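Figure 2 data, in text form.
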Amino acid sequence: MDSRILTAAVVLIGVPGVLIAYIWLTERVLFLVPQRHRGRVRPWLWLAPALALLAFFLVYPAIQTFIYSFQNRYSTAWIGTANYEWFFGVGGGVNALVNNILWIVVLTASTLIFGLIVAVLADRVRYESFAKTVLFLPMAISGVAAALIWKFMYDYQPAGQPQTGTVNEILTHVGFAPVAFIQTSDFKLNTFALIFVMTWIWTGFGMVILSAALKSINPEFLEAARVDGASEWQVFRGITLPLLWPTLTVVGTTMIITALKAFDVVYTLTNGAYDTNVVANAMYQELFVSSNTGRASAIAVVLLVAIIPIMAYNIRNFQAQEAIR
């Protein structure tokens, strides 16, 4: 039998069959449970498949990665904390962490600022939908494709030679010398150039979320402040911004996690060269280039530990908002 027919049969018949069987089994189990306990048991029975998948695909790999981080490159012997000592010592981990901090600060701030500015301005023009569509288009492009676009935009030729990069061509036409945006490590210019690419991608995301939050603000609040003599800046600072704060927090935490996981733009443009390496790219290099499972696992654990506090803050903030509602 053709494997494609077998796959189609499994999808069309097997999956619904398993679902129906599980529903039937769940109801049979609930029938055996005393009536007073069914209300508490039923949610857990329905959550059981999802919890099992989470345990298998998330919890188990995380535990296994943690174990691997204390073993050698082939996971055949225990070496203690040697992998972590290597990462924070000669492995370039400190430089990668510093770059990630730059990514967190600059990417988060720039996405929030530009996204908020565009959301406020686009909300006041007649061609709002068109403007938002154009600004959101980079989100439809993969990180690798966006990096390739900006690789040509940043292309550099020495002074006196024809510039093939759009940015340097503009610079030379207005009287400035061409700049090696990527092939330099001076003042972290290349890292900021990489962050700008990610900002270009994610500003549309911030704009859409913040624009939706802006439209949810009761216009009567704003009109009352204007009637009382408040300027547009006072209305924005005293009413609009405080009401947008929960949304700004959500967008900000999303961008912080995105910055911590930054990989595709760095891999495509520099692959960590010129002191631009980040934690995620360092993990990729150790696992797929150096074939060192232990070191790659240690870097993955460091990345996980860095993300957990941010996720905890986000969850706590969400719970506080739900409590108010």
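Caption note: The chain has 13 helices and no strands.
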